[in-house]
Amino acid sequence: MTATDDHASLMAEDSVSQAGLRACQEILREESCRSVRYFAQVDSTNSAACRDLHNPSAVDPLSDKTQLDPTLPLPRLYLADAQTAGRGRLGRQWLADDGTLTFTLLLDVGDAGCATIPRDTLPLVALASGVAVARAIEFLAAPVAARIKWPNDVHVGGGKVAGVLVEAVAHRPDRLVVGIGLNVATRLSDFAANLQSPARALSELGRGPTERYAWLPELIRQLRETYARLANDPASVLEELRARCLLTGGAVRYRFGETEGLADCVGIDDDGSLIIRDPSGLRTLRSGEIWQVRGGVVG
To answer: At 36, which helix (H) or strand (E)?
Structure first.
């Protein structure tokens, strides 16, 4: 992996997609991100970012044995043409092919006004990321409507099109890893046996780009803009999240620890937690699993 001639902050393997490379160069020109690591293949872009945080000067055994320059600035984009072990929430695998866009942002965390992510907004980052993805989809594939299934799955046309995985590394509280997968032209029929809930690919809508890297610059723009809103006006992000919530006003099935049951979804509180009502009264879910119940069918 070497730095390209035109951008010292763009480290890309020789065999990466030219469309992806152009998207990375556009992102750097706009300063939506300040550095990029671009792999032809990696186990997981989130895992690559976490490895860099654990030991930024080490040789990455799953790249091309080239060391990362630890001085590369943030936010940093990690991009891969192929992932062999993509990860989703709760230890699940993120299934992807060459029609799926998979990338990770490594963000700085600190005091308000001095970092991309103020420390007191950390609980809302995953939710805000879902809002940003929904906004990008509506911009590029208008007039579709994108909804958010708490906490951060993005749904269009009755199925999941995107997911977000946010990870912190214990010894680096000043950093946050945000991974995103988007089904652009994913061949979902190849994964039918492994899908646990309805999924869609954006190409099925007949709107918006069908080349996956055509989505990347706008996604990064929306993510940076939404993180800026989160830092300066978190109430506006929560307001938009509530307006996009797929679950509010409907029936859900939930699992939290050993507790599982059916409930009505009341809404989202100021901490980003989901408020539900079951026979025992109101509950607040800060984590766990939630499924939409539609006409007696859980989805």
So the answer is: strand 35-42
CB 133 within 8 A of CB 172: no
Which value, to the nearest 10 degrees, does the dihedral of the CA atoms of residues 235, 132, 242, 148 take?
A: -160
pLDDT at 289: 87
* Residues 150 and 108 grouped into a single domain: yes
Number of domains in the chain: 2
Strand partners, 245: 148
Neighbours of 177 (CB within 10 A): 23
> From edge to edge, which strands make up the β-sheet containing 289-294?
281-285, 274-278, 259-268, 251-256, 289-294, 297-298
Shared domain for 165 and 263, answered yes or no, is no
pTM for the complete prediction? 0.89
Same domain, 92 and 16: yes
Element (H, E) at 18: helix 18-30
Read off the DSSP letter of residue 92: P
**pLDDT mean over 16-29:** 97
Among 3-17, 71-85, 125-139, 177-191, the range scoring the smallest mean pLDDT is 3-17
Q: Which residue segment(s) compose the domain that 257 sits in?
A: 251-298
